[in-house]
Amino acid sequence: MRFLIVTFDPPENVGGVEGRARAYTEELMKKGNSLELISFGQTNTFISEKYHGARLWRYPSQTRLVPKTFRLAVREIASNRIETVFLLSGALTLFGILLLFCGRIIGLKTGIFLYGKDILESRRKPFDKGALFFSQFLANRIMVNSQFTRSLLPRAFGGKLRILYPGIDPALSNATKQETNEFGGKRILFVGRLVRRKGVDDLLAAFKLLMVELPETMLEIVGDGPELLRLQKLTNEMDLSEHVKFYGNLGGESLYERYREADVFIMPSRRTMTDVEGFGTVFLEAGLFGKPSIGTRSGGIPEAVLDNETGFLVEEGDVHALKERMERVLKDGGLRLRLGSRARERVLSSFTWEDSTNSLIEAFRER
User: Fold this and answer.
1) Angle of helix 333-350 versus helix 281-288 axis, rounded to 10
2) Among the residues of 35-125, which ranges form H helices?
3) How many CA atoms lie within 13 A of 238 on its CB side?
4) Pick from 132, 102, 96: nearest CA to 6
């Protein structure tokens, strides 16, 4: 198949959309497909370069340049005989709607990926609300990251909906080293963007309670974001600074080392008016390294963490339940091993990028 993938999140950056762009590029090329990518970003120039065997076009994201970017995209579609256009992000933009309309006119197969944040925010903005409707109407396929995200969309377009779960590269597990916990106590790990929705303040409150029972415990927070300074200040006010370490953004081996040395992974996300955890790829990352997870019954997290099977789930904002589950996992080595082993087994059997890419290809092959 001849694909064009469009993303408003440059693939070299860190994030869920960016990870999908990289993984789909590698897997589609590996399977013998032809692939072009268009990435919008903070640039004033139009650049073409090679990317994992495909060609990547970098377009400026300024609204005033939409006519030019659209003309160039159509030219790429024609010159490369593109059959399938997939808007991995940007489906609700003017460029996205124009491209979907063009695809309908010239008979391309088109698909869009919608995220929980897209859907919730569109309900509050008239333009986005209209764009959400027209993008679903024009596209042949509507992709979402979980059953939960699917439930946020109207049933009118249900026949077009397909679930593309996120994936993990199983090769990472081959490089897993023996963990070397020189600290001696237990380690709790959080990985994610530091925004209010991620519930790190709830995690800190639960951790404060946990310290009474398990004073030799360390909380490691990996990530950056607008909440960083507030969370650091809260940590100091709670007198936890000696037991909480903020790493900032990590990637590659530096991140994998944190997963290896952790005893349990925790992300107590909560839903807001405009955002929700659609799934939670970080739970899969933890599972790959054989670590149990604790999450909330929020959004698509119950699809990522199976309660009492690969980890535990608590209600949003329930600090005492969160503390109780942390204590239980950290005190019971046998339970920790059982949950972590099942989590790893589930990731390797059902959540690889090859699985997700096969689902993507199959979705476009269907009539």
Assistant:
1) 110
2) 66-79, 94-106, 116-122
3) 23
4) 96
pLDDT tens track of the chain, all 367 residues?
999 999 998 888 877 888 999 999 999 999 999 999 999 988 888 999 999 889 999 999 999 999 999 999 999 999 999 999 999 999 999 999 999 999 999 999 999 999 999 999 998 888 889 999 999 999 999 999 999 999 999 889 999 999 999 999 988 866 545 555 555 689 999 999 999 999 999 999 999 999 999 999 999 999 999 999 999 999 999 999 999 999 999 988 899 999 999 999 999 999 999 999 999 999 999 999 999 999 999 999 999 999 999 999 999 999 999 999 999 999 999 999 999 999 999 999 999 999 999 999 999 998 7
To the question of pTM greater than 0.85 for the whole model, the response is yes
Strands (DSSP E) contained in 145-243 are: 161-163, 186-191, 217-222
Cα 108 from Cα 86, distance rounded (Å): 10
- Going by C-alpha positions, the residue among 13, 25, 17 that lies closest to residue 50 is 25
For the chain, list the domains and their CATH numbers. Answer: 2-167+352-365 (3.40.50.2000), 171-350 (3.40.50.2000)
CA distance 99 to 107: 12
Q: What is the edge-to-edge ordering of all strands in the sheet holding 161-163?
A: 47-51, 54-60, 34-41, 2-7, 84-87, 109-113, 141-144, 161-163
Q: Fill in the amino acid letter for 38.
A: I
